[in-house]
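Hi all, posting the design record for the shared folder.

TITLE: backbone redesign
STEP: 1 of 1
STRUCTURE INPUT:
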């Protein structure tokens, strides 16, 4: 019975956090809140002792105004649990449940002691744990009326080890409004796929290309239509960053060496372990020779792209 009530309370608090994030008016505040939760989850999952974990969680909260505002909303709802829609058994169990959280080797400190000592927001994060925080993020992602799902992916990539060596300016550009990959409908016949790709809207083509990275199990993002920084999408493969440039060209319009030279600069700025140039045409002889001497650069012409439609993408 106690475990059932605890699970119900945890789901309720997950819902409070998700609703608070969704209710934030400014996209940048939602992004900041997501970053806070991602970082808090990393702290809880880390090897630090409880004293250090609590200090790090408090520091994260204090450094982010948006996170503090969302935490305050959740705390107000929790403190008003008696008038909430929680079933009576859960209302009775809530203070007992939070009081039973073992921290720093002390049992039963709960809301009264720890609510004052470390702050109720931190106590709630500890109560949720890594799985609960993940549930908050997933709840936001699965909201069909929200674009926050993409923001979560972006925040996860920008704050990961994969971008640690990227320039600050590059990370800032990555955090700009982005879109999720989207595979476009294509026929089964190879010749018909070729014709469909050549006729595809350039932005739809970018989303289509990035869908192969997503299908391969990577976190993948498409950059804004108006971007002018030399990449159309990026993906994370563990601690490795991949940048992608798409060129939906006519069959007789080959990608030349100058375009690859510019893209190499993007790869360097991103500290990417690999960069893909994907086109519906092919590459000039000079371009192929240049890519052969550029570590991590991969050229995908029409034939290789058609192969992606028949086989799963292998990042290697």
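Okay, here is what came back for every position:
SEQUENCE:
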């Amino acid at each position: 019975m106690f475990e059932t009530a605890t699970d119900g309370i945890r789901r309720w608090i997950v819902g409070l956090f998700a609703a608070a994030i969704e209710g934030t008016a400014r996209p940048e505040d939602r992004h900041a809140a997501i970053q806070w939760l991602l970082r808090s989850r990393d702290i809880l999952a880390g090897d630090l002792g409880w004293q250090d974990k609590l200090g790090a969680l408090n520091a994260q909260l204090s450094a982010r105004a948006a996170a503090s505002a969302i935490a305050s909303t959740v705390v107000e709802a929790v403190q008003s649990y008696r008038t909430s829609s929680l079933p009576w058994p859960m209302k009775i169990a809530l203070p007992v449940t939070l009081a039973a959280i073992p921290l720093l080797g002390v049992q039963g400190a709960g809301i009264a002691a720890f609510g004052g000592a470390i702050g109720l927001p931190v106590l709630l994060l500890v109560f949720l744990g890594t799985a609960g925080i993940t549930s908050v993020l997933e709840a936001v992602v699965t909201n069909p009326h929200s674009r926050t799902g993409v923001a979560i992916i972006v925040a996860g990539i920008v704050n990961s080890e994969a971008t640690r060596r990227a320039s600050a300016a590059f990370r800032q550009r990555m955090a700009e409004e982005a879109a999720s990959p989207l595979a476009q409908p294509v026929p089964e016949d190879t010749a018909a796929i070729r014709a469909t790709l050549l006729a595809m809207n350039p932005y739809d083509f970018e989303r289509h290309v990035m869908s192969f990275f997503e299908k391969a199990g990577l976190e993948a993002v498409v950059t804004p239509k108006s971007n002018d920084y030399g990449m159309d999408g990026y993906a994370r493969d563990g601690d490795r960053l991949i940048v992608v440039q798409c060129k939906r060209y006519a069959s007789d319009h080959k990608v030349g060496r100058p375009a690859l030279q510019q893209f190499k600069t993007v790869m360097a700025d991103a500290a990417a372990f690999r960069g893909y140039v994907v086109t519906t045409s092919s590459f000039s002889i000079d371009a192929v020779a240049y890519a052969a001497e550029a570590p991590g650069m991969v050229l995908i012409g029409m034939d290789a792209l058609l192969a992606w439609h028949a086989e799963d993408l292998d990042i290697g």
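COMMENT: The domain at 162-310 is CATH 3.40.1350.10 (Trna Endonuclease; Chain: A, domain 1).
Let me know if anyone wants the other runs.
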